């Protein structure tokens, strides 16, 4: 059996120690969390990278083996901590990086070159591609991260042309993502979800969206492409945000609101289009008086 080229992602508390492994086929070296996370100021490890394994064609299915802890499949070029759990029918593709104590549930697919930090839990039937996840994240069942965004234009001949979608989706530390949520990868900038963000079920986050830290997105929120959202923002259920708008930090939006232009002042907003909440309430009261 071919030698397994695996690397243990070391604990932050032991930055220079060499970790022992009971498995003689596991190379006990260290591997940092993705450079993508460090580039966006997530508090990623700065330890020295392990030696990069030889490039392997993702289409080569001959290099898959059974993982000792859970029975899932992994490619021999992946770097997986010995303490990671990969359940049966889960698949880890070439050159993926899986951190210590990560749990990958059945039916989940970790695509080529995907990076997952330490102590992250992936639910059933999660699909990851073109993305990096930080430490201590929770990704619930059916989540899709890193697929192409919805970008098309009509050319001079009337044909429909797809815009290139070539960048990443970067998820920070301590992020929780609800079931069946979709986060598209970037086209002209990376899609970024900040540290400690909490995202409910059935949320759509388009390509190039940047969401700040400690933000909360409730169920069925839809965010169009290239939106920028600050820190500590709360979006109520079924809030819609049109493309290319910016929302300042510490903004709260009432359920069923629609953001059609930039919001630059912190505070509470609501309505369609969204306006300061006091103005929205006056609009509702005036409408009720008119209807009477």
Short summary:
This protein is mainly beta and 292 residues long. The protein contains two helices and 33 strands.
Key terms for this structure?
disordered N terminus; elongated; mainly beta; 11-stranded mixed beta sheet; 2 helices
Rg = 21 Å
Low-confidence stretches: 1-34, 36-56
**Strand fraction:** 25-35%
Counting helices, strands and paired strands, the structural category is mainly beta
Largest sheet: 11 strands, mixed
Query: Can you tell me the overall shape?
Result: elongated
Describe this structure in words.
This protein is mainly β and 292 residues long. It is 7% helix and 27% strand. Mean pLDDT is 84; it is low at 1-34 and 36-56.
Write the layout of secondary structure elements.
Elements: H1 35-39, E1 64-66, E2 73-75, E3 79-80, E4 85-86, E5 91-92, E6 97-98, E7 103-104, E8 109-110, E9 115-116, E10 121-122, E11 127-128, E12 131-133, E13 138-139, E14 144-147, E15 152-154, E16 160-162, E17 169-171, E18 176-177, E19 182-184, E20 191-193, E21 198-199, E22 204-205, E23 210-211, E24 216-217, E25 222-223, E26 228-229, E27 234-235, E28 240-241, E29 246-247, E30 251-253, E31 258-259, E32 267-270, E33 275-276, H2 277-291
Parallel strand pairs: 2-5, 3-6, 4-7, 5-8, 6-9, 7-10, 8-11, 9-12, 10-13, 11-14, 12-17, 13-18, 14-19, 17-20, 18-21, 19-22, 20-23, 21-24, 22-25, 23-26, 24-27, 25-28, 26-29, 27-30, 28-31, 30-32
Antiparallel strand pairs: 1-2, 15-16, 32-33
């Amino acid at each position: 059996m071919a030698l397994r080229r695996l690397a243990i992602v070391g604990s932050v508390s032991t930055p220079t120690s060499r970790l022992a492994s009971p498995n003689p086929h596991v190379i006990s070296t260290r591997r940092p969390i993705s450079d993508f996370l460090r580039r966006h100021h997530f508090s990623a490890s700065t330890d020295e990278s392990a030696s990069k394994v030889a490039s392997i064609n993702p289409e080569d299915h001959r290099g898959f083996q059974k993982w000792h802890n859970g029975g899932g499949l992994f490619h021999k070029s992946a770097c997986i901590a010995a303490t990671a759990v990969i359940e049966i029918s889960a698949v880890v593709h070439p050159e993926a990086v899986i951190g210590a104590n990560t749990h990958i549930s059945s039916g989940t697919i970790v695509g080529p070159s995907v990076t997952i930090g330490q102590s992250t839990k992936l639910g059933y039937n999660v699909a990851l591609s073109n993305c990096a996840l930080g430490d201590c994240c929770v990704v619930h069942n059916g989540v899709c991260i890193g697929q192409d965004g919805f970008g098309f234009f009509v050319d001079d001949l009337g044909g429909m042309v797809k815009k290139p979608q070539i960048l990443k989706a970067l998820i920070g530390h301590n992020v929780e993502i609800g079931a069946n949520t979709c986060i598209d990868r970037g086209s002209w900038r990376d899609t970024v979800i900040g540290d400690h963000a909490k995202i409910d079920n059935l949320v759509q986050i388009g390509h190039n969206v940047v969401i700040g830290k400690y933000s909360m997105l409730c169920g069925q929120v839809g965010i169009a492409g290239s939106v920028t959202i600050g820190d500590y923002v709360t979006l109520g259920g079924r809030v819609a945000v049109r493309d290319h708008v910016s929302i300042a930090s510490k903004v709260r939006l009432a359920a069923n609101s629609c953001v059609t232009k930039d919001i630059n002042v912190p505070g509470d907003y609501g309505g369609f289009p969204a306006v300061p909440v006091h103005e929205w309430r006056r609009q509702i009261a005036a409408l009720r008086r008119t209807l009477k």
